[in-house]
Specification:
The structure is a homodimer. The longest helix of chain A has 16 residues. By secondary structure, chain A is of the alpha+beta class. Chain A has one domain: Sandwich (Jelly Rolls), CATH 2.60.120.620. Helix content of chain A is 23%, strand content 20%. At the A-B interface, α8 of A face α8 of B.
């Protein structure tokens, strides 16, 4: 397949314009208004203080607690622990892990918005929970998710959307998600070659596929930085190519989010553009294209059976 | 001398009440109004958007640039470089380094406020510039300055005030100073023994003299967190026992501050309460008690002659 967004192939970073629409659907196609679609088109994100029911949220919080306490989870391939400690940092493929989290990822309200933004049926490319502990929570450096999903997973086009759901309050102080609004219009091709099994280290600390200082400076000068904050249950949709990251968290307040990536069924992955074998299915789905709203209940896959 | 604030002597952390006034002077003694003094009494800090002249600020910014470019400065004992790189993190004793910085530290407006808050003549216990670079600027973990100044420098009482002057914009995103307002009323005695020459490592990453997780959680539950932000030149006075810290900075915008600590002339240091030799004079003055407003112009001391 043609590589429309080459990255990690040149010794020079480059900023080019986006080649795909940002909004693929229309106001009549779903719950979002014309004004909301225009905001997303311009800024690359859209936040909602309250979209989910209180009972749904409480079930998710209980599940979160359960996962954090389970020592077995930390040894699963789907789990990522903090460098230098056994603190859980992420758990992947949460839509296959429990009924509560499956229902969250297949939630009709979330799926309807994703379908409208992408103008087609959608499936779950990736799902996960991120824990950023209090006191010693580490930063996530700036990146465009699409850059990795394109280069390492072979997703051809920018027709994906991420949905972040606050499972703790996101305050200005506990290392909230920071976005460069409008940056979805630019593609920063990164310097450096993808190492074998890059995901094993990149999920702990990303070193390849991050923008160089000069490109990031240009983006922030052009677009600025915003950090949507909100209570438990607040939801932010953001475009797959939006530059984002977060600072460390020394406050006592942990910052945890569920994170679901919807991809258009018309944008299924091909062979990774970096020429390496694809990442495991629990990080980047490439076989199960069940429409997200129809993702079936159990049996949940056991740890280790990532595909 | 009696140790009224023991710390690093017990295996158990402890939170006790402050034994000293927060405000030592009165409304009639200086530029601060009754309301400003009450705010400081309650919250332990006081911020001003604009206190210094534009020409004074510009001279300081030029000096800052000069210091950052000077490779010789990085090798001075007064300089602290980032762990793992040669990036300058702090330079101490700036009131002895150049005429511009001396004038800043002896600035009549700053000194008048310090004198009023401390109810006496004041001298400069410490002065420094902190650089937090963009992209990879590291966090400063929570601490009460007084805990260190008492244990390692022998300052007997809480009758000191710090003054932080923004030399770059302090935004919500570039790792601004976070304060626990009201925490000046509590003293958290820390666990752990002071190692020899602790300052050599503690200025890069403080590990002794930091609050334990449970104590910090209690303080934040009681008082919350604020992060005063502002343009270049904004000034924050904060009480020596106020719990504070800052997150990392992944934005392209550096965060630099000048930092001056005024101590009451009636609160001169005695032998350090940890029983070790005192830290160098360029970190904690113990010989030159010239009133801050009268601190004389040059000759500036050369690098290495810290006393």
């Amino acid at each position: 397949a043609e590589d429309r967004y080459p990255s990690r192939v040149s010794a020079q970073a480059q900023i080019t314009d986006r080649k795909d629409p940002v909004v693929w659907g229309r106001a009549g196609d779903g719950p979002l208004s014309e004004a909301e679609l225009r905001f997303y088109e311009d800024h690359g994100y859209l936040s909602f203080e309250q979209l989910l029911g209180q009972d749904e949220l409480e079930a998710c919080l209980a599940e979160l607690d359960f996962l954090r306490r389970d020592e077995g989870v930390k040894d699963a391939p789907e789990a990522v622990v903090e460098p230098g400690s056994r603190e859980l940092r992420s758990v992947f493929a949460i839509h296959r892990r429990s009924e509560v989290l499956r229902r969250l990822c297949a939630h009709p309200k979330l799926v309807a918005i994703a379908r409208q933004l992408l103008g087609s049926e959608v499936y779950i490319h990736q799902s996960r929970i991120n824990y950023k502990g209090g006191f010693r929570g580490k930063e996530f450096y700036w990146h465009s998710d699409f850059e990795t999903w394109h280069v390492e997973d072979g997703v051809p086009s920018m027709r994906m959307v991420s949905c972040s759901i606050g499972l703790t309050p996101n305050t200005p102080h506990n290392g909230p998600l920071m976005l460069v609004p409008g940056s979805q219009q630019r593609y920063v091709s990164c310097v450096g070659e993808t190492p074998d099994d890059n995901y094993r280290s990149s999920l702990k600390r990303q070193e390849v596929g991050v923008p160089d200082d000069a490109s990031l400076t240009r983006l922030v000068e052009e677009f600025g930085i915003v950090a949507p904050v909100g209570p438990v249950g607040s939801v932010t949709f953001f475009e797959c190519n939006l530059m984002h990251g977060s600072n460390s968290n020394i406050t006592p307040l942990p910052r945890s989010n569920a994170f679901i990536v919807y991809n258009s069924l018309e944008n299924r992955p091909v062979d990774p553009f970096c020429g390496l074998p694809p990442r495991p299915d629990f990080i980047a789905e490439r076989r199960d294209f069940t429409p997200a709203g129809e993702f079936p209940p159990g049996p949940m896959r056991a740890c280790g059976e990532g595909s």
